[in-house]
Design brief:
Elements: E1 3-10, H1 12-16, H2 20-29, E2 33-40, H3 44-50, H4 60-67, E3 72-80, H5 82-90, H6 103-107, E4 116-118, H7 122-132
Helix pairs in contact: 3-4
Adenosine-5'-diphosphate binds near residues 93 and 120.
């Protein structure tokens, strides 16, 4: 196993619900370390660029509206197999299908407003981290 970094976003629904501390406690309990973090209010254009891979999907406009509705917390998580571990702690995209004890099962309201984002591969993690953070802002 290798030490990896992955991009995590605590989405508007979870920030509005004041759950950022509870969510980050779940990451830390799972052995992930927050090595960069900031709170941002994304513009719709910034959200659209981040989720460009989904631009042909029917939910794209709704997703960009949601992600720019109110502040998010963007952060870099580091640890052994961090990409997969983060996805495990997050749970399935649809909270109705997420396992008990996962972030999405605990906090998410719907498949759209599902509380957290996590990179889906090491390659995408590197791209997504670079979208939000300069190298000097990541302090492991
Ligand atoms: P994940 O965030 O689990 O990697 P995807 O990459 O498939 O999931 O989708 C990106 C985001 O788009 C989801 O987290 C969710 O916010 C939104 N989304 C996905 N599918 C739907 C859907 N059917 N309806 C509305 N929003 C969706
Ligand atoms: Mg995804």
């Amino acid at each position: 196993m290798a030490v990896e970094r992955t991009l995590s976003i605590i989405k508007p629904d979870a920030c509005e619900g004041n759950h950022t501390g509870a969510i980050n406690a779940m990451f830390e309990k799972a052995g992930l370390r927050i090595v960069a973090q900031k709170r941002l209010h994304l513009t719709k254009a910034q959200a659209g660029k981040f989720y460009e891979v989904h631009s042909e999907r029917g939910f794209y406009d709704e997703l960009c509206e949601f992600m720019s509705r109110s502040p998010v917390v963007v952060q870099v998580l580091e640890g052994e197999s961090a990409v997969a571990k983060n996805r495990d702690v997050m749970g399935a995209t649809n909270p109705e299908e997420a396992a008990e004890g996962t972030i999405r099962k605990t906090f998410a309201k719907s498949i759209g407003e599902n509380s957290v984002h996590g990179s889906d591969s090491a390659e995408n993690a590197a791209i997504e981290i670079a979208y939000f953070f300069a190298g000097y802002e990541i302090v492991g």
